[in-house]
Every structure is written in structure tokens, then in C-alpha cells.
Amino acid sequence: MSEAATTQTPISAWRPRGAWEGAATAGRHGAAEGPAGIRLTLRDGIGLATLVAADGGDADLRAALAERFGPSLPGAGEAVFVGETGLVWSAPGQWLAVAPTPQALRDLPEALRGIAAVTDQSDGRALVRISGPKARAMLAKGVAIDLHPRAFGPGRAAVTSIAHIGVQLWQRDAGPTYEIAVARSFAGSFWHWLEHAAAEFGIEVEGA
């Protein structure tokens, strides 16, 4: 009786993959005439972590973060950033911590022990930065919230859906520049919507 053949997976197949790999391609896409109205920056390698405060522990969490992290704890529907490090409100008693690298969040679980539960999301979510003169008009095609500057400006955040996909959205500046975090498993589907919604304006994709 012959033995079953076995195959080995090349070590190279186990290399790290970006959240947008296989979905997004760098370069110019959509309308080719004139300057691109939308710029999409793929934010691979960013540190992300959810923070859930212990019951009645918001004040302790605020104090601990101010001492060790930098940005203050934002209120409902808000995001606070110092450079590329920030906190985004997610739900009552819950926030998303954002940092330039996952290593920048490495000490948070110990620093917040007994104050908040910290769960690393760096490999669990895909993050894209959306900017350009047509950014608001493009997002308005799919976001079920009012993006007018009087209602949603810099420092505002929302948990909503786009194309039936749950997203976390916040505005970084008045450019306007937005950032969207989506579950990594939905990155391909979300990118399909994003590329089609932005196509009429011309798209420049960076960071693929």
C-alpha cells in the first residue's frame, strides 16, 4: 500500500499581507481628465486597539490615558488626535485607540489593568484615509449621516454603515480628510464600493 503524498507550503506563502492587498492597486483610477478629486491612502501597519472602560471607570481611564498615551478621552461622537496618535469614540464606555505602529500600543494593556479592557485590533481592521476636494461628495453617496460641515466637522466621529458594511468614520481636518476603519474580512467588499463611488471624480491611490 502506497503512502499518501504530502505537500509542503513554501515559507514565502506565510509572509505578512496588508489588509488591502488583493483589493486595492496604487495609481490613478476612474476619470482620467484633470486632477484627481479623491485621494485614498491605505493605512497598513497602523496600531489599533479597542478600549472598554470598567464600570464607572471613565474618570480613571481618562486620567491614565492623559498620563501615558497623550490624547484626552473624547466624548460621544468625537475623535481626538495628537499627530497620528488618537482616540475615537465607538460607543458608551468604548473607544478605538489609533497609533502609528502596533508597538506604540504594546504597553496599554498593563498600563490600563483594572481600568479598561484592551483588545488589539491592528490585524483585525482595515484603515483608509480619504481626502481631496470631492471626498465629502463621494462619501455622501453611501453614508447615512449628515456630512455637512455644520453637522460633521473636524473631530467628529460616527459608527455607521456603508453598502451594508459596518464602519467607523471620523474626520481629521477641514480639508476635508476622513478616515474609515472596517473589519478586515470586509475590506475587499468595502473597497469595491469605494472605488466605484469615487470613479467619477478621478482617484489617486497611495500606499498599496
From TrEMBL:
Pfam families with a match to the protein in the record: SoxG (PF04268)
InterPro entries to which the protein is assigned, alphabetical: SoxG, TrmE/GcvT-like
Superkingdom field: Bacteria
Amino acid composition bias (Polar residues), ranges on this chain: 1-11
Disordered, as annotated region: 1-31
Residues in coiled coil: none
Protein's name according to its UniProt entry: Sarcosine oxidase subunit gamma family protein
Organism: Methylorubrum podarium
